[in-house]
Amino acid sequence: MFELTRRNNNHHVNAYNPFRELEEFERNFFGNPFGSFFSSGDLAEFKTDVIDEGDHYLLEADLPGFEKKDIQLDISGDTLTISAERHSRIEEKDKKENVVRVERSYGSYSRSFDISSVDADQIKAKYENGVLKLTLPKKQVTLPEGRRLEIE
């Protein structure tokens, strides 16, 4: 089981940025007047762990601050896609709110996983305390029965 893609519709995620440490030092020293607009992408994805538990895989995804209703699990063929969307409180309220700083990320997030070795009909999901836990039972491999061949 491995990851196929990562997607975040609101942030551009760079795989490698040789100036990341310098940018982080500058932000810490001078502050970050542009919020996360030019961020390195650390908030642009959610982190997952996949653990082989013998007869099943355990996938744990950190999704703090999301409500259960904002998380979708979709299976298409041999692909499981986890999508989540966080709405900004600022978008929902009127413009009279006096926002001083916004550091929390908002938008839609998505990651896809290959589940070709998983029994997709038996997947179970639980979400509590900001962690999505998926139990992904492995497909049972059935070997053909042995038989004796006759010699002609």
Structural key phrases:
mainly beta, single chain, elongated, 152 residues, Immunoglobulin-like
**CATH topology annotation of the domain at 3-10 and 44-93 and 102-137:** Immunoglobulin-like
What is the string of helix and strand elements? EHEEEEHEEE
| Total beta strand runs | 8
Strand order of the largest sheet: 1-6-5-4
Helical residues, percent = under 10%
- Supply Rg: 22 Å
Residue-averaged pLDDT, rounded? 77
| Low-pLDDT residue spans | 10-14, 32-43
For the record, the CATH class of the domain at 3-10 and 44-93 and 102-137 is Mainly Beta
Which descriptor suits the 3D outline?
elongated
Beta-strand portion reads: 25-35%
Name the CATH architecture of the domain at 3-10 and 44-93 and 102-137. Sandwich
| Biggest sheet details | 4 strands, antiparallel
Content-based structural category: mainly beta
Q: Report the span from N to C terminus.
A: 45 Å
What's the helix count? 2
Task: Write a structural description.
There is one protein chain. With 152 residues, the protein is mainly β. The chain has a domain of 94 residues: Immunoglobulin-like. It has 2 helices and 8 strands. The strands form 2 sheets. It has a 4-stranded antiparallel β-sheet, with no helix packed on it. Strands 2-3-8-7 form a 4-stranded antiparallel β-sheet, with no helix packed on it. The longest helix is centred in the N-terminal third of the chain and has 11 residues. It is elongated. About 11% of the residues have low confidence.
